[in-house]
Amino acid sequence: MGEVILTMQDIDKSFPGVHALDHVHFDVRRGEVHALMGENGAGKSTLMKVLTGIYTKDLGSIIYEGKEVEFHNTREAQDAGIVIVHQELNMVGDLTVAQNIFIGREFMKGFRIDDRRMIEESKKLFDELHIDIDPSTKMSDLTVGKQQMCEIAKAISHECKVIIFDEPSAALTEKEIEDLFVIIRDLREKQLGIVYISHRMDEIKVITDRVTVMRDGTYVGTLITKDCSKEDIINMMVGRVIYEEPKTKSMCPPDAPVVLRVEHLNAGKMVQDVSFELRRGEILGFSGLMGAGRTETARALFGADPKQSGDIYINGSKVEINSPQDAVNAGIGYLSEDRKRYGLVVQKSVIQNSTMACLEEYISGGFINKKKERDVTEKYIAELATKTPSAEQLVVNLSGGNQQKVVIAKWLAKNCDILIFDEPTRGIDVGAKNEIYKLMSSLAAQGKSIIMISSEMTEILRMSDRIVIMCEGKKTGELGIEEATQELIMDKATRNIA
Ligand SMILES: Nc1ncnc2c1ncn2[C@@H]1O[C@H](COP(=O)(O)OP(=O)(O)OP(=O)(O)O)[C@@H](O)[C@H]1O
Ligand SMILES: [Mg+2]
Q1: Are the C-beta atoms of residues 489 and 457 closer than 8 Å to each other?
Q2: How confident is the model at residue 498 (pLDDT cuts 50, 70, 90)?
């Protein structure tokens, strides 16, 4: 670790009703990866937005390369050598990858944009970073993970001295995370100061040199990563230790009726002849590597993507599901992994988002029953411990993890009997994660049936009563929780891979 390149001192920032940063301290050294951790809503993104000129601070000072600075927008921060990769994707879907990378600084040929040159330059950049993406692809045709890799490449393409990654891994596959770590180590080697925000404890241990913890907008402390344990960090974050223990026995009675039967579902390459059953009160885990076809199976089942063939039975009767509306009518709710694209209207309030899947239930005599809407919303804010100053707050103003909780509230309010949770705790802090686990268990105990897609082995082993394993679009195994082990699951998850 080199000398300190950046110091933030006594930073204070308030939004209406929220004291987001309360005299926070943070510094970054050259050649270090510095983790910024804390529960959802602790103020991590806000602190980095203050640094990069997206928000103006109310108080405090920022010293960068020995001088006090104040940036008024990201452009100014960039020009000074500080770039940020945001938690939310900011790419323009209709433009190509290359156009996105060079947006605002396009190469010109006379009066026209030089698309060929931008594609060439992007190729060079991707080659350097070992990223395998064709720069002429339309952005919206890429997976969320690939879009995130483009954002990262774009940030690195600026000459910079400090780079901030705000939860980059939440959208990435295991393989992409490995690639990112190679890139980060290389940047560290080049003496950049790197800020790394993530909720994944294992990553923190692997990639970072120091950890700063925030809680409720305040600075808690800074530790040297190699000198502290996972438990130390969690303790600083939430003020208590949380243990994650695997489930040893199914909570679902063996004679529980089958509520959902999927037979020979086919939908493109990613869903080939998938069959399974889901019982009342059961949590059925879907495990597999990224790209195994789990989300695609869920989307085909939910009617979000067309299917070629396959039969779906609910409580023994065959149903036709050709659209999400059909699925919702059949009592299926889907909490998607990409909350922005499928789950939320971020420019609307927490109330509107929580109740939009079941608005008809609040309408009587042509009027919306505002009180009922509010009561339901407040109930879920309390139950999920969603951090928001009020039910009226626009979802766009909530922290990433709290947005996820609003998606969950939306489907809970709908009272669906079958819930599909797709990566339910991605981007969610350890404390809230526990709340969501408790909630899933209690939903199952109340007789709801849950399909839980998860890439986290600990989550699969902790929550599932039974586990379906997929690999490259096919179901490659099924295990009861009593017999499941990490090794058995991995073996089946890689079955088709040579
Ligand atoms: N533009 C805004 N308007 C109003 N409140 C805001 C705004 N941006 C952030 N907040 C609030 O400030 C607090 C801190 O949010 P922030 O996004 O910094 O959290 P975070 O630590 O990044 O959490 P996460 O891990 O969930 O991403 C939250 O209570 C959030 O709702
Ligand atoms: Mg954040």
Answers
A1: yes
A2: very low
| 340-382 pLDDT per residue, tens | 655 788 889 999 998 887 777 788 788 888 898 999 999 999 9
Across residues 155-176, what is the average pLDDT? 87
Could you write out the three-class secondary structure of 52-74?
A: CCCCCCCEEEEEECCEEECCCCH
pLDDT band at 118 (very low <50, low <70, confident <90, very high): very high
Residue whose Cα lies nearest atom 6 of ligand 1: it is 397
**How many H-runs (helices) and E-runs (strands) does the chain carry?**
16, 24
Residue 97: in which H helix or E strand, if any? helix 97-101
Ordered by where they begin, the domains of the chain are 4-238 (3.40.50.300), 258-493 (3.40.50.300)
Q: Tell the burial category of 487 from Cβ atoms under 10 Å away from its Cβ (0-12, 13-18, 19+).
A: exposed
By alpha-carbon position, which residue is closest to atom 24 of ligand 1? Answer: 40
**Which pairing describes strands 108-109 and 112-113: parallel, antiparallel, or unpaired?**
antiparallel
> Which of 21, 45, 164 should be mutated for ligand 1, with most atoms under 8 A from CB?
45
Distance 341 CA to ligand 2 centre (A): 18
Probe ligand 1: pick from 11, 18, 50, max atoms within 8 Å of CB? 18
Which residue among 49, 397, 408, 428 has the greatest number of ligand 1 atoms within 8 angstroms of its CB, and so is best to mutate?
397
Handedness of CA 174, 200, 50, 63 (dihedral sign): negative
Say whether pTM exceeds 0.90.
no
DSSP string, 152-165: HHHHHTS--SEEEE
Q: Whose CA is nearest to atom 27 of ligand 1?
A: 400
pLDDT 10s digits, 126-146: 998 888 999 999 998 888 888
Residues sharing a CB contact under 8 Å with residue 278, sequence separation 6 or more, in sequence order: 258, 259, 260, 261, 284, 418, 449, 451
For residue 223 the two structure tokens come to: 């530790």
Q: Is 52 in the pocket of ligand 1 (CB under 6 A)?
A: no
Q: Radius of gyration of the chain from Cα atoms?
A: 23
Ligand 1 neighbour 42 (Cβ under 6 A): yes
- Joined together, the tokens standing for residue 114 give 């030089």
Alpha carbons 102 and 83: distance in angstroms, whole number: 15
Q: Which ligand is nearest to the CA of 40?
A: 1
Answer for the pair 56, 46: CB distance below 8 angstroms, yes or no.
Answer: no
**Tokens of residue 372, six digits:** 């009922």
Q: What ligand 1 atom has the least distance to the C-alpha of 387?
A: 29
